[in-house]
Write a structure and sequence with these properties.
Chain lengths: ~325, ~210
């Protein structure tokens, strides 16, 4: 079959029909090319389409494209194609939005990939000698490689973002992220008066653990305590390491009484918990002191005032015997 | 960049305005709503002035939705459709309920897709009609959409990197029944200006 087309000069009043055999050229390009008539039947199907769809052209020519790919309606394909015919516009389906328009197997053997080829698809108007749009040229570009690279990049960025927020040793939030969470909670309180409780806790006599049993044992206590706290908090509570042996807890949507009950439960359970030291046949028990503050009945709030009050309360807990909870409002 | 004479700017303005009229009626069939495009403002500009204009007209509406699309042919450049925040939801409802365009996409992707589609339709129709009047064609690259903070230094820096200035065509547009409005900009490459002036002169000669 010889694909006839016309070339347009700049003077629409004088068009010159030139017969050109484009079929060979169309079969050489590294894109899928489908020419659709106004009734959406297939007028041309290039070699790339044949090989990637596994449908020979003589089996598809003259058939409605929707019969071959029933999913096109749900993609909005016919809506866009009609706009091309009506307005003479171009239309596009990007891989980022749609992943693919024509389901074709993604034939990758040496690396991970997608089940279906990822595609960028464009629809272009093909005009007759009078300048009327009479056909739609569908171009399909295989964008699978770019999609895979984008996935890898997004995963790497997510990992980087997570590591920027996470304390290396204990895997809880680091101080920077904890501060961001506190500020976000304060914003929410300002907008919706959603009360929260903030706790700073400190391991009692932690220096002695390091001095007497070594820093590896000290690290084991820190990670063990972090694990314990994480398992005993609600999924939406925020836990972070504020510094050396200090941790902070944000209890969203929590009143003072509930916060105090939870803090007391944690304190008592920590005192009953043993942490095994590596390479030593002994277990360590520690206690924690806690300073707590609440937003109940508070008129103004900043991150600094929250930290200040909780810190003062912690100091009072340390000064009055440790292994206790004090509160400042 | 060489400045346009008043006569040249007015000529371009007239032709674009005719094109806009045709585009508006064509797009109205698709949108099932009237598209109004105001008489365009045409001038040669540097990029910075565009940023300042946007900041003034979209005060307190950051971030805005920005649909950008490159085009090429005898004249080439970039078009931008700028909509205030919150427009995308109205447009989603419009496309799905009025026009039956409901592609299977997640909610956040659907909003982006709708912005892309509206941008593609309005930009394509406007520039397509303008090109047809000048007896030429333009082809388009896929559009891109972004949420931009106009007040950000990053936006200013990126726009300012466009060197050499451009021919600016600015119009306001409104989808009347849906109370959606924004701005449409065309940045036409300075290299095409000579061709454009000749084509405009030829068009005007043929009209007389």
């Amino acid at each position: 079959m010889t694909l006839q087309t016309v070339s347009y000069t700049q003077h629409l009043g004088q068009s010159q029909a030139v017969g050109l055999d484009f079929e060979q050229i169309c079969d050489l390009v590294n894109y899928g090319l489908i020419l659709l008539s106004r009734d959406m039947t297939i007028a041309f199907w290039n070699l790339w389409m044949e090989k990637h769809s596994r449908l020979e052209r003589d089996k598809v020519l003259g058939r409605h494209i929707g019969d071959i790919y029933p999913g096109l309606e749900k993609k909005g394909f016919f809506w866009k194609a009609q706009n091309v015919l009506t307005l003479g516009n171009f239309a596009f389906f990007s891989q980022q939005m749609h992943h693919y328009v024509f389901p074709m197997p993604s034939e990758r053997y040496l690396s991970e990939g997608y089940e279906y080829m990822q595609q960028n698809v464009s629809l272009a108007p093909v005009r007759d000698l009078r300048g009327q749009t009479v056909q739609v040229l569908v171009t399909i570009a295989d964008d699978t490689n770019a999609a895979i690279y984008m996935d890898r990049l997004e995963k790497t960025l997510a990992t980087l973002k997570e590591s920027n927020r996470t304390d290396y040793l204990t895997k809880v939030a680091n101080r920077r992220y904890l501060t961001e969470c506190l500020e976000a909670e304060i914003d929410l309180w300002k907008r919706k008066k959603s009360d929260f409780v903030f706790i700073i806790l400190d391991i009692d006599h932690f220096k002695a653990v390091n001095d007497n049993l070594g820093h590896q044992c000290g690290d084991r206590v820190l990670t063990g305590l972090a694990d314990f706290l994480r398992q005993n908090l609600r999924p939406y509570d925020k836990l972070g390491r504020y510094g050396g042996e200090e941790f902070c807890i944000i209890l969203p949507q929590t009143g003072l009484n509930s916060g105090l009950k939870l803090a007391e439960r944690l304190r008592a359970q920590v005192a009953q918990t043993s942490f095994a030291c590596p390479d030593k046949e002994q277990e360590v028990t520690v206690t924690i002191s806690m300073g707590l503050t609440s937003t109940e009945n508070v008129a103004h709030l900043t991150a600094d005032t929250v930290l200040y009050k909780a810190d003062l309360a912690l100091y009072e807990a340390k000064e009055t015997g440790r292994n206790s909870i004090k509160c400042r409002l | 960049m060489k400045a346009l004479s008043t006569e040249q700017a007015e000529a371009i303005q007239e032709i674009i305005n005719i094109g806009f009229g045709r585009a508006a009626s064509a797009v109205a069939q698709i949108l099932c709503a009237r598209l109004e495009l105001s008489v365009p403002f045409v001038a040669t500009v540097e990029s910075d002035s565009v940023v300042e204009f946007l900041r003034q007209h979209f005060q307190n509406q950051d971030p805005v939705s920005l649909v950008q699309q490159s085009f090429y042919g005898n004249f080439m450049g970039e078009a931008a459709l700028i909509l205030p925040k919150g427009s995308s939801q109205v447009l989603v409802e419009m496309l799905s309920s009025d026009m039956g365009y409901v592609p299977e996409l997640d909610a956040d992707k659907l909003e982006q897709e709708v912005l892309l589609e509206i941008g593609n339709l309005v930009i394509g129709a406007s520039l397509g009609q303008f090109a047809a009047l000048l007896q030429t064609r333009v082809a388009f690259k896929p559009p891109h959409v972004a949420q931009e903070m106009l007040c950000s230094d990053d936006f200013q820096r990126r726009v300012s990197q466009v060197k050499g200035g451009a021919l600016l065509v600015r119009t306001s547009f409104r989808i009347k029944e849906k109370m959606v409005s924004g701005y449409l900009f065309f940045f036409l490459s300075a290299q095409c200006l000579e061709w454009l002036i000749q084509a405009v002169d030829k068009f005007l000669e043929e009209q007389t």
